[in-house]
Amino acid sequence: MPQPHLPPAMKRLLGRCANVLVLVGCLALGVGFAWSGLPAAGLRGSHGTFTVEKCSVVFHRGNYSKNSSHSHSYSDHSCTGAFRADAGRAVDAEAAMTGLESGHHAGEVLPAQRTTGHQVELVNPLDAMKKFMGAFAFLLPAAFALFWLLTNFGRTSGSWRVLGETWRATRGTATRAAVVALAAVSVVGIVVVSPVLAFALPG
């Protein structure tokens, strides 16, 4: 079956649209990871303690893969109990904590952040650091997408030789400065900023 032939201008337009989507998608995912890591670092929501009443295992059933008879199911733990806020010592007796890697026994007191309604999240600096690192990691493909968008790399070939030539051609330009700055923010964010946010600035 013959493949539809697109005019070169249409191909360039579609390529640039794809680059924009990748760039926006990476930035959006990075923001999402960072936002989800703030409660675990104690930097979003009302800080307090969560007293466990009971916990249960929650099974999540996934789809069966095409090449395997096994499903991609997984499980986590959900706990209910009482949240006591540090500010004003207000108590929420209907608080719930979900998505926990392990269960907790009744009466255990955990550091927590209440985010919305009765939902509380465990303060876990290690988990927060992983999410912050993931957020900054998305800036690396975003930097490449930005480079591709600004230089239209790959308009004739996507080879490594063309990539090197295109990169050398950006020496001294704002394009190289922007791409290097975004990549540098990613690396520094992963190595330095993420641990600081997670461990040195608890709520």
Descriptive report:
It is elongated and about 65 Å long. The chain is built from 5 helices and 5 strands; from the N terminus they run αβββββαααα. The longest helix is centred in the first third of the chain and has 33 residues, at 8-40. The relative contact order is 0.17. 47% of the residues lie in helices and 24% in strands. It has a 5-stranded antiparallel sheet with strand order 3-2-1-4-5, with no helix packed on it. Strand 4 (109-116) and strand 5 (119-122) form a beta hairpin. The model has no long low-confidence stretch (mean pLDDT 86). The protein has helices at residues 8-40, 125-137, 139-151, 160-169, 174-200, and strands at residues 46-60, 74-85, 91-100, 109-116, 119-122. The chain has 203 residues and is of the alpha+beta class. Helix 1 (8-40) packs antiparallel against helix 2 (125-137), helix 1 runs antiparallel to helix 3 (139-151) and helix 3 (139-151) packs antiparallel against helix 5.
